[in-house]
């Protein structure tokens, strides 16, 4: 059994997992944007963002994570580096931010997913967006996306997280 403590979580926190593709610069930019959006909309008192992976943006992500952690007085952002087996990160998270195969793996773990993409794209996977993702893939390009509102909705509503996690699992099984 995988323990959330492996990633430094407190039992009462909502864990947001972000597993970007290590070679996709835009995915790493999305991780930086996620940090900004998260801290702008939520005091991070009950959540923790765990970013899995490595790449050329890591030094900038580390600096930003240190700033956030210093400001909130705890480890609200954790960078794990590359994991040979990211399954523990999927299992430990309450919400996953990702794209493509990362989103599909999160769905297999019955996690609610915010699908990320290029040009600021983000959209919560739910009954209204599933057909679009099934058609185009679990990815998107551009468009107006309010990642902050999407994060806040999932951070504040455990029932919604449970419902969307069950929906994700059902969708990936079909």
Description:
By secondary structure, the protein is α/β, with parallel strands linked by helices. The chain is 46% helix and 16% strand. It is built from seven helices and six strands; from the N terminus they run βαβαβαβαββααα. A six-stranded mixed beta sheet has the order 3-2-1-4-5-6, with helices on both faces. Strand 2, helix 2 and strand 3 (77-81) form a beta-alpha-beta unit. Helix 1 (25-41) runs parallel beside helix 2 (58-72), helix 1 crosses helix 6 and helix 4 crosses helix 7 (158-173). The chain starts with 13 loop residues before the first strand and ends with a helix.
- Counting DSSP H or I runs of 4 or more residues, the number of helices is 7
Low-confidence stretches: none
N→C terminal distance: 26 Å
**Any idea what the radius of gyration is?**
15 Å
Q: Overall 3D geometry?
A: globular
Residues in helix, %: 40-55%
Strand/helix succession: EHEHEHEHEEHHH
Averaged pLDDT: 80
Assess the beta-strand content as a share of residues. 15-25%
Strand order of the largest sheet: 3-2-1-4-5-6
User: What is the subunit organization of this protein?
Assistant: single chain
User: How many DSSP E strands?
Assistant: 6
Q: Structural class, judged by helices and strands? A: alpha/beta
Largest sheet: 6 strands, mixed
Give me some keywords for this one.
single chain; 174 residues; alpha/beta; 6-stranded mixed sheet; 7 helices; 46% helix; globular
């Amino acid at each position: 059994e995988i323990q959330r403590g492996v990633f430094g979580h407190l039992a009462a926190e909502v864990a947001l997992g972000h597993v970007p593709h290590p070679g996709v610069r835009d995915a790493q930019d999305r991780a930086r944007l996620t940090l900004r959006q998260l801290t702008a909309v939520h005091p991070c008192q009950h959540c923790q963002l765990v970013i899995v992976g490595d790449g050329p943006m890591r030094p900038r992500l580390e600096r930003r994570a240190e700033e956030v952690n210093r400001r909130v007085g705890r480890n609200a952002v954790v960078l794990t580096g590359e994991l040979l087996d990211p399954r523990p990160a999927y299992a430990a998270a309450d919400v996953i931010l990702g794209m493509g195969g990362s989103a599909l793996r999160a769905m297999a773990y019955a996690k609610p997913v915010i699908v990320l993409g290029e040009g600021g794209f983000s959209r919560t996977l739910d009954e209204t967006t599933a057909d679009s993702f099934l058609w185009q893939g679990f990815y998107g390009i551009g468009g107006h996306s309010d990642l902050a509102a999407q994060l806040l909705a999932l951070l504040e509503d455990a029932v919604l997280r449970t419902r969307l996690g069950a929906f994700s699992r059902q969708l990936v099984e079909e």
